[in-house]
Amino acid sequence: MKRTLHIFAVLVLTGLMSTVVGQTNNSTGHFDWVRSYFGPDYPDGGAPANEIFGSVIDSKGNVYILGQFIGGARWDNEMDDNSRILPFSAHRNRSAVLAKISPYGETVWHKELYSSYTDIDAYTIRMVGDTALLLYAWFMFPFDYGLPGEKNELYYFDTLLTSSERFPQPPDSLQASNLYYSLITLGLDSGNIIEEHFLTLNYVKNDGSLLRNQYHLDYLMTNSGIRVSFNVDNDGNIELVRQTNDLFYELCDTCSGGLYYWSTNEGNISAMRLMVDGASKQLDVPLEPSSVWNWHIIKLSPHLDSVIASTYVFDST
Predict the structure, then answer these.
(1) Which pTM value belongs to this model?
(2) In whole angstroms, what is the distance from residue 175 CA to residue 221 CA?
(3) Cα(199)–Cα(307) distance, rounded to whole angstroms?
(4) What average pLDDT does the segment 133-140 reach?
């Protein structure tokens, strides 16, 4: 099987142990340590399955990386249990992994978001002050899916979840296909969860109702799978930037081509509704009717106490 090698290094000033990184003096720079990880590609060899999307460093010199890996990924090609990045990933789905590495290059802890049903996507990590980490993840809670009798599992930061009651639901207690976007705050020392908020993105039809699944009317249709980035300002406000493809289609026996399109182009979708933690906070974001592709920049207050505003939307065609 083809294997992929990624190498990352931290350039550390000589005075790192006594001063904060970044202080300028007459020290000579050097490579303090290098870590690498190995992992198999997808079975067809057509795409890498293991990637590091971002890293941050705290004032003590600890490094935190956010990446995506599949089963078999290991630090430095070591074979002992402590070197494994993915302790649960027996399947070939992508798992989001957050790891802490000490100033000496030692792995302090790693946390995993892994589903036996589908891939997990997490692309952006931010340091919140010098006290916590914030990341954004996209995942599908798996228990309503799969073949009859099939057991799907979700490891949520190393905890096996067995009930969908853990996650908040959209308005009117409707399920949203168990598809969630999450903003998660974790502590630096242990990687344990401090705070978490779940976002659901649905569409407002031109009659004011929400778009529902054709076959399961108790489910909302949700926008999914588009990469998101974000930043946090000094006051704790979150600026969320996302690209969205505002087009859904349903099978239709009486429609031309056999499909019915829900999109701004067709004039039957008027806005996208962002719902935070169920129905407690929500915002209707306008969509550009000339294109199904839009960029949104949305500002959220600290701890997501309120959805402040959509700053602007523009057509990305």
Answers:
(1) 0.78
(2) 9
(3) 11
(4) 85
